[in-house]
Amino acid sequence: TEFISANDLASLMDASVNDVIKVCLSMGMFVSINQRLDAEAITVIADEFGYDVEFLSAEEEETEMEIVDDPEDLRDRAPIVTIMGHVDHGKTSLLDYIRDASVAKGEAGGITQHIGAYEVKTQSGKPVTFLDTPGHEAFTAMRARGAKVTDIAIIVVAADDSVMPQTKEAINHAQAAGVPIVIALNKIDKPGANPDKVREELSGINILVEEWGGKYQSQEVSAKTGVGIDDLLEKVLLEAELLELKANPDRNAVGTVIEASLDKGRGYVTTVLVQTGTLQVGDIVLAGPHYGRVKAMTDHRGKKMKKAGPATPVQVLGLTGAPQAGDKIVVMDTERDARELATQRQQLAREQSMRTKKHITLDEIGRRL
Ligand code: GTP
Ligand code: MG
């Protein structure tokens, strides 16, 4: 693996890049300014300049970046919830009902827009944040990038249907991620609904609901009439209480990108779930291979926001590109640092994709021979 360019190594050692290149030449290495150097080269060059180099493994870098808060600075935060289940069992309908009900309850004038995540106030006044991405994506795409965003999973099963393959898959995903499950027995308004049959099937895959002496909370609901949905949210909150979800709002924000796109009028629009700290207009952020200054923030009703604390989803304007879902977004101290890191990451990605291309070409040649 290559680490940094000759140029960056020079600045780390407070030397001019020309001197670095000269030293390389004297040792028989032809190096260009932006060429990335491997560990051996770095060690040899640094030694010439009187430096010892310590290489951190990826793992160590991860721990190094881990945020350690003083317990005194921690405040309660809203749970982040994903809805999963089999095709047509009512995931979208349930999300829509919950969002529309909350918009209807709130001040008028807001137009609901799809931003991939939203926060609702439950009857008891406590907030819950919903991730409005297909549950599987939330778990697979994001987890592939090492992002863990979901605290609780609602597994929807249509009460007029059965536990289906994707129901089981969703349960497996949640369990593998160690995320607690609340069961929503949906479509209870339908004449053919038979929630007991579904409870029975669930017990067959070791999901024994509380009413039957098990540990899983379940709630009969209808995404059509809205019956049971307030109770479902209260059960989610109960689960959240057990998790004691906390974060420090008084620090530089760290969050995860939920989705991003290019808007003709507004430029790059990035939906961010703030996980710790508070994101503010004017902050300089780095998100995957992109950076920028937060020009404006809005919630899912298009309402302008100046600040977004832990577990708050916001649309952010001002990035120089569209990061991918699951990319981490962090606040940086200077625009220079943000730009530099973004450029480095872009370069790495380019080099990686070039290597992949080369590999394919060689392979093709091999096949032709
Ligand atoms: P996919 O995104 O395709 O996996 O489906 P989904 O799980 O999002 O289901 P969706 O919300 O699209 O609902 C599927 C169908 O069931 C739609 O026609 C809904 O109107 C209907 N539906 C959902 N919930 C209810 C309910 O509680 N009662 C009744 N009667 N119909 C419902
Ligand atoms: Mg859907």
UniProtKB/TrEMBL annotation:
Residues the entry annotates as binding GTP: 85-92, 132-136, 186-189
Residues annotated as domain Tr-type G: 76-246
Q: Where are the transmembrane segments?
A: none
The record's subcellular location field reads: Cytoplasm
Q: Domain of life, per the record?
A: Bacteria
What family does this chain come from, according to its entry? Belongs to the TRAFAC class translation factor GTPase superfamily. Classic translation factor GTPase family. IF-2 subfamily.
Q: Main role?
A: One of the essential components for the initiation of protein synthesis. Protects formylmethionyl-tRNA from spontaneous hydrolysis and promotes its binding to the 30S ribosomal subunits. Also involved in the hydrolysis of GTP during the formation of the 70S ribosomal complex.
- This chain's protein is named Translation initiation factor IF-2
Q: Organism, per UniProt?
A: Hymenobacter aerilatus
Species classification: Bacteria, Pseudomonadati, Bacteroidota, Cytophagia, Cytophagales
Tell me what gene encodes this: infB
